[in-house]
Amino acid sequence: MKELLQYRTEEEVKIANAVFENIRISLEQAVYLYEHSDSIFCAWLANNVKEGKFGKKVFYNKNIHIEVSNICINKCKFCSFYRKKGDEGAWEMDICEIMDILAEKNIDEITEIHITGGLHPEKKLSFYIELFKEIKAKYPKIHLKAFTAVEIEYFAKSDKLSFEEILKILKTSGLNSLAGGGAEILDDKIREKLCPKKTKSQVWLDIHNIAHSLGIRTNSTMLYGHIENYSDRVFHMQQLRELQDKTGGFNCFIPLKYKSFGNSLEITTEISLSEELKNYAIARLFLDNIPHIKAYWPMCGKETAILALSFGADDFDGTIGNSTKIYSMAGSVSKPELSEDQIKELLSEAGFKAVERNSDYEIL
Length: 364
Ligand code: SF4
Hints:
alpha/beta
C-alpha cells in the first residue's frame, strides 16, 4: 500500500489510512476528496470498501414502476416530469387503469411495485388506501414501495393527521417501504431556489425517522450537480449518516445527477462523467453505515451504471419493464427495460456476479 500512496498528498494518505482501518472519514475529509483528489484515487478506496462488504456481488431486482400521475402542484424548478392539469403530456390513472396495467404485466415474476407520481390535487390518501388494498388483495406477496416524504407531508396536511398516523394507515393498507426521493439537497437555502414549495429538510428527515421507528425501511437520495457546492453535498450526506446512526432504517443511497433537459432551472450544463463517478465513490466512503449504494441505471444509463460499480456502487436496480418516465422526460434512457438475462449478461461481462435481491436486500 505504501507504494500506491507515495505520490499522494499527506491528507490523502491520512484518508486512505482511515479507510483501511475502518475509521469514519470526516466531513472535511470528504470535501477534500471532492476538491483535491482524482476520481481514480477515490475509486480505489471506495472499491476496497465495497469489495470488503460484498466481493464481486452486484444486486438487482425484478420490479416495475407505476407513475399514477405527473400532475403536480409543487412545480419544482429542476423537475422535467410534472405537468399542470390539461397540459399536453399530462396523465392520470384511476384504480381500474392501474389494475389493468398490472394484469398485463407478469406480476408473478417480479418482486416489487414502486408507486410514485406528482402531488395530484385530487388524489389523496383515500385513493391510495383503496389502491394499495386492491393491489395487495390480488398480489399479496408483492412488495409495495411507494411515495417519498413529500407525499407523506402532503397527505398529512390534506387529511389533518400526523406523519405517524399517515404512515401507520399506509402500512396497514399494504405499504412496505418508502422511496428516498424528495431529498434533493437537504439545505433549505438551496431548496428555496430549487423547489420552494417542497418539504423542508428537517421535515424530510423527521418523516424518515418516524418511518424507521414504525419498521418501514426507506431509501435515501441526493439530487446533485445543479447549484450546490461540494460542502453542500457532504452536509447533505452528513445528515443522512447521522439519522442512519440513530435508526439504521435506510436500505440504500442513490446519487441522482441533475439532468438539464425539459425543466425551468436554466442550468444547461451537466457535470462530467468523471465527477459523476467520483461522487459514487465519495458516497461509499462517507456513508459508511448505509449498506448499499445504487447506480440507478434508468437515470444514469447502463454504461455509467456499470462503471459506477467500480466506484463503490453495489446495486444496479432492476428490470423496470419500461414503466418509468421520470428520467426519460429529463433526457435519460428512453423506455427503460432490461430482462433478467440481459442484466446478468451485462454484469458478468463487466466482471461482476449478478445476485437477485428482494426489496429488503435479502438474496433470492
Ligand atoms: S419533483 Fe416531485 S414534487 Fe417536485 S414538481 Fe416534480 S413531481 Fe412534483
